[in-house]
């Protein structure tokens, strides 16, 4: 068997020319990076991960931990306790300048008039045809807008924003900051022992953020994540990353979790992964991300791709991104074709075995007439047809914290 | 009975004209949690180095190659209900299939346990 390229991940969007950003696709074990001469960077927690026993792989241009004790164990730990994820490869950007909101609304389909201080919102970077260049988070800070973008796309994003924002807008890439995600049902318990801030963590509900002090360091904490669980994303000074990671993992509920489980957790949560489920060839409406086009913008337009996207909102799309539950135990991976009888009706964009559910699941773009929940379809894997049913995503219900009743 | 190893991390126990094939402990450790094993049908003619089986871990599908040429005589039904046997007992209960030894000459060039261990230590 081929083991030379242990499954690694890192979407390589075709429009991305930077060699340092390349990697292999996680689903392709046969494609190693061994023979490629690529520059792979290190992140602030590199030595810390290795000391925790992580297996490191190149991902989005950096050495990153794919697993510590094992993907299934880490997955289950996050669903029942707390996982600490190092996501410092992601881009943290700070925008400021005159008429900032109007400038940013020119590049994102967001309504910033309804984004209040201390709130975070999901948005999309779109090309002129409405294809997805990246998905991102936008937060309002007192004098700034703070963006978190995907690691594999951040250099292109910065170039795109610099090109399309007015010169008066300042764009700072916060390369001196690390980003840690603390995810799981006991995340608030663990974090509350160490974080003090503007207000109590119990008032920090889903998609809000605030300034806090953690082990004497000033950090910002957003209540958000990529697992479907309650949790936090902590932006902190890079030189405090080891201290804070060690502090948090010293809590009995917390263990470090690798990229492998991060992927299986987000798949169960039905959350798209850029470069796999989203690309310049997909529109956010096909992907069911209409909430990323804020209401006012659907009528006013004025953002890249608005013509196509607003038309798709009104008229629907020819294909839709759906969840699929597979029969049996054989998983279908990215690229597998979906059939209704003899007719090819779609393609899997993400798929794998669900540790929480005990059966394989997948996300796929399928023709709209076959996208209704309950539709029976087939997926072709190695010349076999696997029975699959369209199901409502998320596969595992989200458990976000929206405040105590 | 003699056990041989390939540089693709399969093991093969040879007993006269029959052999049993599986993947090594090193391989299962690299793959992680195995969730499905696709085995060849009984009667399949395998060619040395050709595709013989597929192992699905949580993250990826990996091909398993035939260490030698021969005919598949039996497959391990236990893997259907409990594919994790490949993780817990890769070189015993987690065997994949039994096959005929088509050409004993193909065993030359495979490694013994000591050579395979040295091979893995280099990886």
UniProtKB/TrEMBL annotation, chain B:
Q: Which Pfam families match?
A: GCV_H
Family indicated by similarity: Belongs to the GcvH family.
Q: Which residues carry this modification: N6-lipoyllysine?
A: 59
Q: What is this protein called?
A: Glycine cleavage system H protein
- CDD domains (UniProt xref): GCS_H (cd06848)
Q: Alphabetically list the UniProt keywords.
A: Lipoyl
According to the record's subunit comment, the protein's assembly and interactions are: The glycine cleavage system is composed of four proteins: P, T, L and H.
Biological function = The glycine cleavage system catalyzes the degradation of glycine. The H protein shuttles the methylamine group of glycine from the P protein to the T protein.
State the NCBIfam families in the record: gcvH, PRK01202.1
Return the cofactor note field: Binds 1 lipoyl cofactor covalently.
The superkingdom listed in its UniProt entry is Bacteria
Q: Tell me the cofactors it needs.
A: (R)-lipoate
Q: Which residues form the Lipoyl-binding domain?
A: 18-100
